[in-house]
Amino acid sequence: MPLETESRSTLSSIPRLDVAEKARSPKSQRIPALDFTKGALVLLMVLYHWLNYFIGVQWPYYKYLRFLTPSFIFITGFMISNVYLSKYAAADPRLSKRLFTRGLKLIAIFLVLNLARSFVVPSLGTGAVVSNLVDPKNLFAIFVSGNLPSGSKLISFSILVPISYLLMFSGALMLPYRLYRYTFHLVCIILLSCILILGVVGLGSYDLEFITIGMLGVLAGFVPIERINRFVRRPYMLVLAYMCYATAITIWNVPFLLLVVGTSLSLTAIYLIGASGRESGRIRSEIILLGKYSLFGYISQVAILQILSAGFHRINFGSAEMVLSFFAAFVLTTASVEVVDRARARMVNADRLYKWVFA
């Protein structure tokens, strides 16, 4: 797909979290703190993409934002078990169908967006060259290994591929899950073993790592939300753990194990902020709205930044223009979500179109 939240006066009362607990009732499947987490990730991803387009891959601090992409995938896995399995029984064929359909839609969206990109990018005049996507090596990198060259502009919206795989894979696992309740646990162990084996022989696959992180999210989603809420009531431990993580990646960069740790800690921290804020806060409400439209927000920000990049690179921009482009990306991303939300509320056809594409 990413902050105004007023903290309580004492740490013991930071996250009251009754809203999140009520959200698990049959009448509502939404968890406000979870939507806040997704919305905050969308905003942080705006920062990440802005750095990519306006600063470049030479920026030395990307490793501190490496948690962003796997965080979206982790949350997708979390929702499969925590939300979808609370709405559908595992034996309900509609669940597998829903996961498969959503995964296929994401692949279709990915293909359409990159096809459009192949026509639009040359016309923007940024100097970027669109590679041949049907080249076998490129197809393998995109759809199998996920090992795109560092700083590659081969494709955009690459996060959609492992998310779609996770959804469809989870849909396929629902059948054995009906018979064996630890199916996802077993599969996660197998995936982790595959990553270990590939590491020993000097190979790796980003898609495999992302799917594994998504599967860890599925396991996290089996934990009752009340237990998660109790866990995030310990901010001192979280701060200490995050300091240790930041020190570790400064020394060793971000290997897979630290990526998993960083993803978990970052999501916990953002969830804590979302759970402890006032329900009526304007900025919090905007972030929650972004979370409800996290997929659309992710797609719109990439398109917006590509257009902004084309426009600003045609002028001699200095620090003022850099700051302007940064805030423009945030404002336009938020505005695009607001427009879609209002259009859905006022026009039946707009609501149907949105559901057909994104639901």
Structural features, described:
The protein is mainly α. It is built from 15 helices and no strands. The protein has one domain (11-358). Helix 10 packs antiparallel against helix 11 (256-276). The chain is globular and about 60 Å long.
Describe, in short, the structure shown:
This protein is mostly helical.
Number of domains: 1
Mean pLDDT: 84
Indicate the structural class: mainly alpha
Strand coverage percent: under 5%
Largest sheet: none
Q: List unreliable stretches of 5+ residues.
A: 1-28
Shape: globular
> How many β-strands, per DSSP?
0
Helix/strand order: HHHHHHHHHHHHHHH
Through-space gap between termini: 15 Å
| Radius of gyration, taken over Cα atoms and rounded to an integer in Å | 20 Å
Share in helix: over 70%
Helix count equals 15
Secondary structure topology:
Layout (H helix, E strand, L loop, with lengths): L17 H5 L9 H24 L12 H20 L5 H32 L11 H10 L14 H20 L3 H18 L5 H16 L3 H7 L3 H18 L3 H21 L5 H11 L1 H19 L6 H28 L1 H11 L1
Helix pairs in contact: 2-3, 2-11, 2-12, 2-13, 2-14, 3-6, 3-8, 3-11, 4-6, 6-8, 7-8, 10-11, 13-14, 14-15
Features:
359 residues, mainly alpha, 15 helices, disordered N terminus
